[in-house]
Structure formats: C-alpha cells, structure tokens
Amino acid sequence: MSKASGCTCAAITFIILGGLALLIAWLADKMKSPTFTIDQVTVNGYNFSTTTNYLNATFTVAVRSHNRDSKYKIKYHVVAVSVYHTSDYALGFETLGPYSQGHGDDLVFSARPMARDVPMTDPDVVRSIREENRAGQVRVEVRVRASVRYEVKGWKHKHYTLKVICANLVINLASMKTNQSTNCDVDRF
C-alpha cells in the first residue's frame, strides 16, 4: 500500500468516525420542554370601577412545571408571570427566580401579579368585563416567559426562552378562585 493511499484511508476513516460521533451526539441531545399547568388562580381585592373603568386586583397564581427530560436539569434564571384579560389586555405581572429543576421534578412558581389602577380604555374590553362581572366570573389568561438553560453533568447547553400560555381560566367571583387546573401551551426558542 502506498503512502498516499494510507493517508486517504486514514482521512476517510476520520471523517466517517467524526460524522458518526456527531450523529450520535445529535440523536442523544433531544431536549424535552417542560410541561406547565395552572394549579389555581385566586384573586383578592377585585374591584372594577364602572364610573372610571379602572381595575384593581391582586392575583395569586400557582404555576406547576414538570421536567419531562430524563437527562437534563433545567436552570430558570428569570421567570415572568403575567395575567391578561382574555382580550389580550395586560393586567399585572411579577418577576421571579432563579430556580433549579432536576430530572422528572415538579416545580411550583407562586406569583402575585397586581393590577393597580389599570385603565380599561377599549370599549369592547369594558363591555366584556361588565358582562363577566354580572355573570359572576372573570376570564383571564396566564402567560409565563422564562429564561432557561439545560444542563447535564456539568455540560451547559445554550440559553432558551420558554413562552407559556395558559388560556381560558375562569375565576368565580363568589369563591374568588378557579375551580380546575389547566394545561398550558409551551414554545421554546
């Protein structure tokens, strides 16, 4: 065998082994996004002024995250929990963190977003809130944005942002809380 063909054979072997190593790493590196549910939303001090159209309320939101990934630990750097009226009208938010979540673990974020003199300027929103108040219930949406990093045995993967939307939550104004838990949609980018 000539020296040139030996170098070519070694180069081809190196390329094949390198490609195989990349393929194995790619197949092994399929991170799963955590699942999110809303355990409960309660409200205190709910007051919608029909004369000035200002809303005041303190929401208490229990957001449960479940790490479905069997390899990666999730580090939450910043978690922002917001409450919206279902018409996409922001009512309040709170920023939490940092947190760490192990494999298969559940983590509950407890946030208290406050609506303090939030002006309702859209006539459709005002009408919707008045109708909801007469019906004895308020519909809200909880949104979570989290800056996270996945880690496995000291190896840190790049940072991601999780965008979580928990829609159609109904707060009963008689009991001031939701009656059921709700699953949420999760996007990772």
Features:
5-stranded antiparallel sheet, 189 residues, 54% strand, alpha+beta, 21% helix
Structure description:
The structure is a single chain. The model has no long low-confidence stretch (mean pLDDT 89). The chain has two helices and eleven strands, in the order H-E-E-E-E-E-E-E-H-E-E-E-E. The chain has 189 residues and is α+β, with helices and mostly antiparallel strands. Strand 3 (73-85) and strand 4 form a beta hairpin. It has helices spanning 3-28, 123-135; strands at residues 35-48, 54-66, 73-85, 89-96, 99-101, 106-111, 114-119, 137-152, 155-172, 182-183, 185-188.
List the helices and strands and how they pair.
Blueprint: H1 3-28, E1 35-48, E2 54-66, E3 73-85, E4 89-96, E5 99-101, E6 106-111, E7 114-119, H2 123-135, E8 137-152, E9 155-172, E10 182-183, E11 185-188
Antiparallel strand pairs: 1-2, 1-10, 2-6, 2-7, 3-4, 3-5, 3-8, 8-9, 9-11
Protein name: Late embryogenesis abundant protein LEA-2 subgroup domain-containing protein
Organism: Saponaria officinalis (Common soapwort)
Keywords: Membrane, Transmembrane, Transmembrane helix
Distance from first to last alpha carbon:
52 Å
Got a strand count?
11
Mean pLDDT across the residues is 89
Instruction: Let me know the largest β-sheet.
Output: 6 strands, antiparallel
Poorly predicted runs are none
Based on helices, strands and strand pairing, what is the structural class? Answer: alpha+beta
SSE succession: HEEEEEEEHEEEE
Q: Level of helix content?
A: 10-25%
Number of helices: 2
Q: Work out the radius of gyration.
A: 24 Å
The outline comes out as elongated
Q: How much strand?
A: over 45%
